[in-house]
Amino acid sequence: MLQTLYIENIAVIEKTSIDFNRGLNVLTGETGAGKSIIIDSINAVMGQRTSKEIIRTGESTAFVSAQFEDINDDVKAKLSELGFDDDEGTLIIQRTISLSGKNACKINGRPATLSMLRELSKSLINIHGQHESYELFSPETHIDYIDSYGGCNSLLDAYKEKYREYKILKKKLNEAVSDESERLREIDLLSFQTNELYTADVKIGEEELLENERTALMSFEKISSLLNKAKMLLSGDENCDGGVETVDYAMTSVQKAAEYNNEYEPIAEAISDVYYNLRDCAESIDDAIDSLESDPQRLEEIEERLDLLNRLSRKYGCTCDELPDVAEKLQARLDELVNYDKKRDDLITACDKAEEEAMNAAKKLQNLRKKTAEEFADKVKQEMKFLNMPNVDLVPQFEEVEFYAKGIDKVELLISANPGETPRPVAKIASGGELSRMMLAIKTVLASTDTVDTLIFDEVDTGISGSAAEKVGLKLREVSQSSQVLCVTHQAQIAALADFHYLIHKQIEQGRTFTEVMPLDHNGRKNELARIIGGVNITDAALTHAESMLKEYNN
Fold first, then answer.
1. Do residues 187 and 334 lie in contact, with contact meaning Cβ atoms separated by under 8 Å?
2. What's the CATH number for 1-124+453-520?
């Protein structure tokens, strides 16, 4: 349950800490005192979207912290899934909002994200706001109530998986059969491109080899001159000795010296190595000169080949070395299009199978919904009767439709508030007070299946008064026997039924507005109830009435 809510610099609240309790916790206060700020703060710490405008004027940051005690197993499992540990049943969630728009979130002291807070909040708190009743105007939401009551989530998840597989295959099939002329045009283009590339027969590294060969052919005269010069320097001519012969003389001289002193043997061996290396080099140069030739025709062939490689590279938007891979990919696409009939038949078979499996899953879901919808409607109807709608009738209307995300069912709860009237859509006949009571009835019924420990009702008394308000209060107290309930209300009948009563009080000091939240004792509750009953001027009669209400509801 929510143990402590700490708020700092949110709107007109500078600093306040509220310790909530089990049972029915009621918050009251004058209009504009800041009751909605409490709900906004809880929404903020639960990771919901908020604005930097919520930050108190003159401050750069706002901060909200919520401490939960005795968290249930679902919350512990969600914490573990998100990578956090529960602190022996205690959970602390914090959020800092800055004017820069940045958020700093923590779960049990460790950094977290807003999405983590939102995910965790689903297992912690269920907030029913004063405008949520208008969801009943949208029939699309009615199926969610039935699914929640009937425990349909596992079947719904199974259906969604089958539906997703079917949609993927259906899309592929539609793409495969959408445009036959386009397929034929693509085959023609791919046939030309693959033929062009395979005929070119480009090899990886070919461009570099050709460029090297071209450079050599274009430099024939210079290479010939340089090689002959090197040959003369190494091998010599009739006028002078070459390097090889000179090194040979040096080698022989040192070898003879070594015969007198073996210390020179390493030098002789080193020169010997040089001699043989130079002789090998001289022979290689001779071979290179013998093989050297000017070949204008080969040079022309290389130029033409390089021109082709460059043209293909530009055409297909890749390097020359990537052309073979491009050819393979184009061929694979061509094979796919040429084998279109087989692919289409395979897709049809797979799509039919996926459709059948999705339909089977949808039927199982439909059967469970129909099995539980009547029971759900009857229980909601009984709750509404208790809430001063004795003649209400509630009928779940099913319509089978094409596959969509929630199955093959459209479900709408039709309502008749008066005897003899045909049940009709909620939007056409329900008043604001009836909407509030219907939503409270639904929440009451769903509370038995909801694992969330804390329920928050924000002004669910909209549009009701008198005995109906008392019945709403009694129902909230009943719900609070199994879940912690926080309720913002304007009704004395509801406030009088609270186990714990908090006053949201606004005051102005030195031109600034400050709001604080104070737990009320018996006298404080009596005065607040009298204010709600009698307005600004609290009379003795109002105080007496308030005292009698407290005694009646708390004996």
1. yes
2. 3.40.50.300
